[in-house]
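Q: Is it fine to ask for two folds in a single conversation?
A: Yes, each is treated on its own. Send the first.
Q: Here.
A: Result:
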Amino acid sequence: VQVEHLGAVTALTRTLGGKVFREPTDLPTVGRYAVIADPQGASLELFEPATEMTLHDDGKPGEFCWNELMTNDQPAAFEFYSRLLGWQKLQDMDDKGTYLIYGLDDKPRGGMMTWPREASRPPAWLYYTETLDVDAAISRATKRGAKVMNVPMEVPGGGHTAQRIDPQGAAFALHQ
């Protein structure tokens, strides 16, 4: 997540009950980064670029297009990220619990949901990559050893998504 003042954001992380796993660290000529975790334990990287950066076109195939937090307390997680990063609630959707869509300046950036009670998974972020053909991407991933996390499904807006686990155990998601 790109931020303007990395030192201030990492300090606020602690104030809000989160953890800093990697203090702000320089990447020569690129910028600075830190690794944090929210109070529920989901981790992510913060980045302060050394120079102005153009945002990626998240509708282009191969780009990350959606960021989804699965946590054990979605309201508390949203409160943390809204105070830390200024994220705004854009919409609540009810689908087996509340799915909160957050964003900045009225542009959706991702969603947050509370894990079902029967899930025994730690809080985590899942990143979606845009693809032209989700079925073809699933086929390629399966041939390379990916396992099913969730079956393909239609999402609001007419898109299709699929979640998989790669051979090393990392979760990933696709969106068409």
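Q: Second one now.
A: Result:
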Amino acid sequence: MSLNPIHIIFGLKLRQARLSQGLSLSELAARAGLSPSYVTEIEKGRKYPKADKILRLARALGYDYDQLVSLRLEPPLHFLESALSSQVLQQFPLELFGVDPAAVVGLLTRSPAEIGALAQALADVARGYNIREEHFFRAALRSYQELHGNYFEALEREAEAFARAVGLDRSLPVPEDALQEVLQQRFGYELGLIPADSRPALAAYRAIFVPGRRPRLLLNPALTGPQRKFVLAREAGYRILGLGERALTNPPDRVDSFSQVLNDFKAAYVGGAILMPEQPVVADLGALFELATWQPERLYRLLDAYDVTPETLLYRFSELVPRHFGLKVHFLRFSEINGTYRLYKHLNMSQLSLPKGFDLKEHYCRRWLTVRLIRELARLGQPGPLLGIQRSRFLQSQREFLCLGFARQENLPPFLRTSVTLGLRIDDELRARVRFASDPAIPEGLLNETCERCPLPPEACQDRAAPPERWEQEQAIDERRRALEELMRDGAPVGAVSSSAPSAAG
């Protein structure tokens, strides 16, 4: 059952009109010649009556037909109009989280004024922080991934079966020409290049999909081999899964629905699974975790063995490590331009303390591995990829993570530096599974979320990028709270008010 705003609004208007007339459900049903159970279903938004029944209900209430079918709600229900017309409410994937849409409809119709006021408050917050529908859809997808440990058995099996059927499982790395042949021969694609020279505005896209009887996939000529292969494998993912609603460009120019976001994710998941099949990757991870000491060349070798980008490699690890090794992980992607760092992508399945300054213009702690690698890459003046490892301990929570990361200079756009990090929560399970985790040669870092919230004094941190304004504010608030509690506990001193004190009027 989906949330149909027309059905819900009609049900709310009918209920509002009935209550304003002081009629019970049974009385309205009798006047209209309908059963009470049918009227109940209408008021709950589960059914929408035909025109003749609407006319009978309108006459029973003394309403005009057009007045009853109007989508306008009267106070105090008018707040619900914008909420019910919102794409977020209509398309939010309630079923993915085990929520019956009927329960939401029941809540709306049971307490419409209160829910309307809540919806208005949430809408005001969203507008105040420039939160768009796209943000809700992507947050819903991220929560869904984290709920399932970022592992999806059905998608793994689809990728495995297809690779076997077309012979993509015969050798690793998967050849690029084999992927091209699959798209052209099996799915009828035309492959070409984005005309970036003649239309420079299109140079920002990695790929453009042109639908039609013979679909076309245009690739940016500046893509590297591993990047091209991922685009081709992801495109095969759309066809393997029979996905319709999708982004036409990469990166997407717009997000129209949650289905689009979900389908894009599924296609990318299958594409990654084709390039890095589950069983070989699990075997390589097992061998990596058995190393007694950290050996960075082993990770570089895996990049070459699968011929993938650092992001594809570590993101694929984030899908398989929780499932096969029982470890809690997180994945981060940062970008930097002109000294400004942005958290572009994240999955948090390890209870990582993500910065509270997300999108609030605060400065991420420069001791984070993902930030440190970008800074080191800039200092070296190299394109990368630059590999790093760190045991990170958060100052306030004392939680520890073993972090592996890569930084590199992007080719699209060429002025951007990015880094990706796979973090593994350090606990008894990790210590038992990952032998090199205790290697004393691995550098350690004491870090915080953002500079603005860090209590470390200047002499204890040479990497601070901003003064601890938010931490000082919090300390002042705590001090006032303690003083107030002491005053309430000990009692206020009693004394005469000085006659020289200014009056309230003065």
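Q: Anything structural to flag on that second result?
A: Two points. The CA atoms of residues 311 and 444 lie 23 Å apart. The first strand starts at residue 190 and ends at 193.
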